[in-house]
Design a protein that fits this description.
The protein has helices at residues 17-28, 44-55, 68-82, 97-109, 124-133, 151-157, 180-192, 232-235, 250-261, 271-279, 283-307, 332-343, 372-382, and strands at 31-32, 92-95, 115-120, 136-141, 162-168, 196-200, 226-231, 244-247, 310-312, 319-323, 345-346, 348-349, 363-367. It is of the alpha/beta class. The N and C termini lie far apart (52 Å). The structure holds 4'-deoxy-4'-aminopyridoxal-5'-phosphate and glutamine. 4'-deoxy-4'-aminopyridoxal-5'-phosphate is lined by residues 97-99, 123, 168, 172, 200, 202, 231, 233, 239, 242, 244.
Length: 387
C-alpha cells in the first residue's frame, strides 16, 4: 500500500476544530454551541434576491474580481459606515468567504521565512494560511480576564523579518473589540516598521453596549498599507453563502487577485447580487442585528454564570469565553470532548487557538447566535455540571 503523507507545510493542521466539533454534535444529537453559525436565516428579501438571480440566469462565471454591483456595494458600504473610499474596479475583490481572502492574501504577500505577527488566540485559518505560504507565525497573546492587546508584547514581536501584522477585531474567540488606543498602537508599530497590515473584520457590525468597531484603514498612514477583509456570513446570517471581500490599495488587491485566480478563479455568481442588496439594507437592519445578538449574549452569559463558570463578557462577535476552573475542570479539550455525552452540548476549547496550549487550557468558547429556546435548553442541560 503506497503511502502519501501530506506535505510538510500541512503538518499539524489536521481537521479543523469546527469540523470535528460539528460532527460530534451531529453524531451525539447535541446542541451545537461550537461552530459559529446562526440557526435562523438572514433577511427573506435577500434570499428572494438570490432566488431571482438563479432564475434570471446569473449562473455562469462571474467576472474574476466579482460582479460589478457587489464591488460597488462593498465600496458604498465602506464609505457609508467608515468614510473610507475604495475604487470598486481596482480596490475591491470579491472572494469565496473571508477564508479565501485570508488565504489568498497570505499566499500573495508572504514569502517563505517572512514573519507574520498575529493576535493570539487566533482564528485557525490564520495559522494554516501562514503555514501554506511558508511564513512564520509570531503570536501576541491576549490573556484572560480582559483579553486586551499587550502593546509591549506587540512591539517586541516585531523583528527585521516581520512582513505583516494580521489583526482581527472584533476578535474571535475572545469577543474583544480593539479600542482606539490599541488600534493606534497597531498603527504606530505598522508605520514605524513599514509593515503590511491584514485585518479581518468579519464581525464589524456585531458589537455590543454601544462599543463601535473602527477599521484600521481609517487611521492616518494606514490606507496604503492595509488590506481589510470581511464577509456577508456574519452580518447577514448567511454563513453558508461564503461571499467575502478584500478592500485595499490597488497594488495589494492586484496581488491578492493574482493568487485568487488560481484558487477559485472566481466566486459563486448568483449569491453576489443578493449580497450587494444586503449591504445596502437600511440602518434599521444593522441596529437590529446588533441588539438581537446582544440580548442573546446576555441570555447565555447569565445562564453560564449561574451554573458557576467564570464568564468573560464579550464586546462583539458570536462568542463568549468562559473559564471552566470554578466547576472543577482544568482541561478545555477533554471537557469539550466529554460534554456532548455528559450534557448534550458542544463547545469549542480555546487551547487549539494558541501556540502554547497551556495558555488557553481552561478556557472554553460558546456561540450565542442561536434561538432563545435553544440557548435556554443548552443552559438547562449544562446545569447538570453544577448539580
Ligand atoms: N475570520 C474570522 C475571525 C471568523 O470567525 C470566520 C468564521 N466565519 C472567518 C474569518 C471566515 O469567514 P467566511 O465564512 O466568510 O469564510
Ligand atoms: N468562524 C466560525 C467559528 O469560529 C467557523 C467557521 C469555520 O467552520 N471555519 O466558529
Amino acid at each position: 500500500m503506497p503511502s502519501f503523507p501530506p506535505a510538510d507545510r500541512l503538518s499539524g493542521l489536521g481537521t479543523t476544530i469546527f469540523a470535528e466539533m460539528s460532527a460530534l454534535a451531529l453524531r451525539t444529537r447535541a446542541i451545537n454551541l461550537g461552530q459559529g453559525f446562526p440557526d435562523t436565516d438572514g433577511p427573506p428579501e435577500i434570499i428572494e434576491a438570490a432566488v431571482r438571480a438563479l432564475r434570471e440566469g446569473r449562473n455562469q462565471y462571474a467576472p474574476g474580481p466579482g460582479v460589478p454591483e457587489l464591488r460597488q456595494a462593498v465600496s458604498d458600504h465602506q464609505q457609508r459606515f467608515y468614510g473610507v473610499t475604495a475604487d470598486p474596479d481596482s480596490e475591491v475583490l470579491v472572494t469565496t468567504g473571508a477564508t479565501e481572502a485570508i488565504a489568498a492574501a497570505l499566499l500573495a504577500l508572504i514569502d517563505p521565512g517572512d514573519e507574520v505577527v498575529a493576535l493570539e488566540p487566533y482564528y485557525d485559518s490564520y495559522a494554516a494560511g501562514i503555514a501554506m505560504a511558508g511564513g512564520v507565525r509570531v503570536p501576541v497573546t491576549m490573556r484572560a480576564p480582559d483579553f486586551r492587546l499587550d502593546v509591549a508584547m506587540l512591539r517586541s514581536a516585531v523583528s527585521p523579518r516581520t512582513k505583516a501584522l494580521l489583526v482581527n477585531s472584533p476578535h474571535n474567540p475572545t469577543g474583544t473589540v480593539l479600542g482606539d488606543s490599541e488600534l493606534q498602537a497597531v498603527v504606530d508599530v505598522a508605520c514605524e516598521h513599514d509593515l503590511l497590515v491584514i485585518t479581518d473584520e468579519v464581525y464589524e457590525h456585531l458589537t455590543f453596549d454601544g462599543v463601535r468597531h473602527r477599521p484600521l484603514a481609517t487611521y492616518d498612514g494606514m490606507r496604503d498599507r492595509t488590506l481589510t477583509i470581511s464577509s456577508a456570513g456574519k452580518t447577514f446570517s448567511f454563513t453558508g453563502w461564503k461571499v467575502g471581500w478584500a478592500v485595499g490599495p490597488a497594488q495589494l488587491v492586484r496581488a491578492v487577485t493574482t493568487a485568487k485566480q488560481f484558487l477559485t478563479f472566481t466566486s459563486g455568481a448568483p449569491l453576489q447580487p443578493a449580497v450587494a442588496q444586503a449591504l445596502g439594507l437600511g440602518d434599521d437592519y444593522f441596529t437590529e442585528i446588533r441588539t438581537t445578538l446582544q440580548a442573546k449574549r446576555d441570555r447565555l452569559c447569565a445562564g453560564l454564570r449561574d451554573i458557576g463558570f467564570d464568564v468573560f463578557t464579550p464586546q462583539g462577535t458570536y462568542f463568549v469565553t468562559t473559564d471552566i476552573t470554578p466547576l472543577g475542570y482544568d482541561d478545555g479539550v477533554a471537557f469539550c470532548r466529554d460534554l456532548p455525552e455528559r450534557c448534550g452540548v458542544v463547545a469549542i476549547p480555546h487551547q487549539v487557538f494558541y501556540d502554547d496550549p497551556r495558555a488557553g487550557k481552561s478556557l472554553v468558547r460558546w456561540a450565542f447566535c442561536k434561538r432563545d429556546d435553544v440557548l435556554d435548553e443548552a443552559v438547562k442541560r449544562l446545569s447538570l455540571l453544577s448539580s
